Amino acid sequence: MRTVVHESHTGADFGGSRYLSKGAGCIVDQIYIDVRVKPEQRPYVVVGDNSIVSGSYVFERGVGKITIGDGSSIGGGSLLICSQDDGIAIGSHVMLSWNVTVIDSNAHSLNPDIRKMDAYAWKLGLETGQIGAYKDWGNVSSKPIVIEDQVWVGFGSAILKGVTIGKGAVVAAGSVVTKDVPPYVIVGGTRRGLSVTSRVKDGRGTRRFLRCREIPITKNC
After folding, report:
1. Considering the domain boundaries, does residue 45 fall inside one?
2. What is the pLDDT of the chain when averaged over all its residues?
3. Residue 123 lies in a domain
4. Please, are residues 184 and 196 in contact by the beta-carbon 8 Å criterion?
5. Structurally, how many domains does the chain consist of?
6. Which tens digit of pLDDT belongs to each residue from 4-52?
7. What residues make up the domain containing 20?
8. 0.90 exceeded by pTM
9. 74: closest CA among 105, 94, 93, 53?
10. Within a 13 Å sphere around the CA of 72, how many CA atoms are in the beta-carbon half?
11. Please, are residues 59 and 68 in contact by the beta-carbon 8 Å criterion?
């Protein structure tokens, strides 16, 4: 039996030499950019001044852009996956801890009759060195993600498609964020949804507290 392993392909960029644009004072630490379909000679990841970036950046369909502002940090083991034209926007002075996932699509169709072909399409892409080229994205929902300035996302969290996280918000470790997060709140994952525990200091230095409440998770298809 033959095992096919592809460590590299046409759109793979180990270290950011081809698809990364970085500002002054930016530190790049073990970054991997993967443009899976029809890679273009352009920056897919754009980073501002004095930021520290690690992790993997995947462009499933060869479209869109991931932007990161000034003075931000992306932790090791983080995975950012872009599959739509409007991309993923991360503001300035943002901290994404290690092993954070940011994904702007469902990744697969919710229709099992369509989804059943995805594993074969992936196998075919590995065998031909054209990863992602055979997948049908026509029935996969995707929406842009915005993480505003001064947000802190704890380790092991997942930010899903269509979400905006407001300025100064904190997302507790291990949370799954499926809905927008207001500015200057602390949220943490529960079985029912995200619990808003308090407000944090805003730009005026005031501190305001809220009663705990639930942001229910609704279908986001």
Report:
1. yes
2. 86
3. no
4. no
5. 1
6. 334 557 788 888 889 999 999 999 999 999 999 889 999 999 999 999 9
7. 12-106+141-216
8. no
9. 53
10. 27
11. no
DSSP secondary structure letters along the chain = ------S--TTEEESSTTTEEE-TT-EEEEEEEEE-SS--SS-SEEE-TT-EEEEEEEETTS---EEE-TT-EE-TT-EEEE-STT-EEE-TT-EE-TT-EEESB-SS-S-HHHHTTHHHHHHHHHHHT-TTTT---TT--B--EEE-TT-EE-TT-EE-TT-EE-TT-EE-TT-EE-S-B-TTEEEEE-SSEEEEEEEPP-TT--------EEEE-----
Under a CB-based contact definition with an 8 Å cutoff, are residues 62 and 35 in contact? Answer: yes
The Cα 117–Cα 140 span in angstroms is 13
Report d(CA 105, CA 139) in Å as an integer.
11
Which of the residues 6, 9, 93, 108 is marked catalytic? 108
CATH at residue 167: 2.160.10.10
Residue 126, in any domain of the structure? no
Amino acid occupying residue 205: G
Tell me whether residue 98 is in a domain.
yes
CA–CA separation, 169 and 147 (whole Å): 9
Is 108 annotated in the active site? yes
- Report the largest interatomic distance among the alpha carbons of the chain, rounded to a whole angstrom: 65
Averaged over 145-151, what is the pLDDT? 99
